[in-house]
Amino acid sequence: MTCWQQRALLALWSLGLCSGASANLTFSGTLNEPPPCTIDAGNTIEVDFGDVGIKRVDGVKYRRGVGYTISCGADTLPWQLKLSVNGTATAYDRSAVQTSVPALGIRIYQNNLPFQLNTPLDISLSSPPVLEVVPVKQPGATLLPARFAAVATLLAEYE
After folding, report:
1. Chosen CATH of 35-156 out of 2.30.30.140, 2.60.40.1090, 1.10.10.10, 3.10.310.40
2. Across residues 12-19, what is the average pLDDT?
């Protein structure tokens, strides 16, 4: 018998020793959508700073709380709730929303820490963070008298 024939015979014999086993696999599941959330029943949250002295904008004076409530539908899964403030940041502060006055922004705080815009933060529905806002000016800028406004979106969503 040649070496090649011996190898073929050995391969056939070893196949006979291994008994084949197979099983079917099935996969299933349910796709779920996270429950919807609303902030202040979908109403606009307004913070009025009133009259602001152009020489008194220092990132401390005029600090105001942002009152809000978050309501979410019943959740059946352990979803992670995220909160973000989405808007246009100033060039000098990633936690400040640009206002209609180029050198003026509104810095946002969450639990006394700067809240970077457009960055989701993990939160708990039972204890959402305390939000505060304060006017800030671009370093070295001189503010002139003018009306100002800024707009941002407060977003709560499950992930």
Report:
1. 2.60.40.1090
2. 53
Domain boundaries, the chain: 35-156
Name which residue leads in pLDDT, 76 or 13: 76
Q: CA 65 to CA 109: how far, in whole Å?
A: 9
User: How many Å apart are CA 25 and CA 148, to the nearest integer?
Assistant: 63
Residue 66: both structure tokens together:
């942002």
Residue found under tokens 């246009």: 88
Structure tokens at 117: 């815009």
Q: Per-residue pLDDT for 6 more than 90?
A: no
